Amino acid sequence: MKLLMRTTDMATIAFAQALLQGEGIDCFEMDVNMSVLEGGIGIFPRRLMVHPDDFADAARTLKDNGIELPEEG
Fold this sequence. Notes:
Residues 1-62 form the DUF2007 domain. This protein is α+β, with helices and mostly antiparallel strands. The chain has a single domain (2-64), classed as UreE, C-terminal domain (Alpha-Beta Plaits). The chain is built from three helices and three strands. The protein has helices spanning 10-22, 35-38, 55-64, and strands at 2-7, 27-30, 46-50. The two termini are 17 Å apart.
């Protein structure tokens, strides 16, 4: 799996997942259970992962819908 995005904004994660599912791109949200440790206040970012073969299409889908991703590097 390859990291597509990391954010503390739950609405952005949900929107990104919906967009990717609509395009037939499988994704997996990591760090969901960290809310148990943080008390649900949203300080730990969640990560959205995709298969490396789908990364370019996934990144383009999010960018085309207004979700900016950090530059790789």
